[in-house]
Amino acid sequence: MSSSIPGLARFNALESGAALAALHEACASSAWGSKLLAQRPYATVEALLAAGDAAMAELSAEDLAEAMAGHPPIGRPKPGDPTSAREQRGMAGASEELKAEMLELNLGYQDKFGHVFLICATGRTGEQMRDALRERIGNTPEEEREIVRTELGKINRIRLTRLMEDLMEEQSA
Q1: 16 touches 37 (CB < 8 A)
Q2: What are residue 136's phi and psi, to 5 degrees?
Q3: Which residue in 44, 93, 124, 136 could disulfide with 128, CB within 3.0 to 4.6 Å?
Q4: Do residues 160 and 26 lie in contact, with contact meaning Cβ atoms separated by under 8 Å?
Q5: Whether residue 41 has a cis bond before it, omega within 30° of 0
Q6: What is the structure's pLDDT at 77?
Q7: How far, in Å, CA of 118 to CA of 110, rounded?
Q8: How far apart, in Å, are the Cα atoms of 142 and each of 50, 61, 64, 149, 169?
Q9: What is the mean pLDDT of residues 102-115?
Q10: Residue 7 to residues 52, 53, 117, 153: CA-CA distances in angstroms?
Q11: Which is higher by pLDDT, 86 or 52?
């Protein structure tokens, strides 16, 4: 993406409350959104993405928990939420057997870690997500927290990029 993308200019010009609301759609952590908001204006989309990465790296355990709370369990996208449905498309055609196994694994994961299993689901099949869940359920809470941080960072990058594209489309409409 080039630095002259109209969506970025529109984001930089948004009123603070509207910009924060847009950032909250990308990541439910208020600390993350506030850090990105405080650094506006951004010269390039790459600079915005880098700021998002840096803010993610600085989140406390409580901030990570807040960010994770904005994500539904894999296999159960939020009803009426096109972002959730799009990101979890790999589970859409999954067999009933795979969906049942994911539900059971998700519940075991939540019992162990106290939060939903979080993975950047974009582009992954249901089987790939199941395999990752099977593998990660054996992690320590500390290991899992850092994996979740990385996965959230990937999701946030995708969502910020989409936000810039959506703002560009709104401007040209």
Answers
A1: yes
A2: -75, -20
A3: 124
A4: yes
A5: yes
A6: 64
A7: 10
A8: 24, 10, 12, 11, 41
A9: 93
A10: 16, 19, 32, 21
A11: 52
Residue 2 has pLDDT above 70, yes or no: no
SS (H, E, C) 78-109: CCCCHHHHHHCHHHHCCCHHHHHHHHHHHHHH
Burial 24-43 (b: 16+ CB within 10 A, else e): eebbbbebbbebbbeeeebe
CA–CA distance, 132 with 166 (Å, rounded to integer) = 31
Residue closest to 129 by CA, chosen among 76, 83, 68? 76
- Residue 156 to residues 23, 39, 87, 143, 171, Cα–Cα distance (Å): 9, 17, 12, 20, 22
Half-sphere CA count of 38, side-chain side, radius 13 A: 7
Whole-number percent of the chain with pLDDT over 70: 90
Tokens of 138: 């054996």
* pLDDT, tens only, 17-48: 999 999 999 999 999 999 999 999 999 999 99
C-beta separation of 10 from 45 below 8 A:
no
Q: Would you give the end-to-end CA distance of the chain in angstroms?
A: 20
Q: 139 or 89: whose pLDDT is higher? A: 139
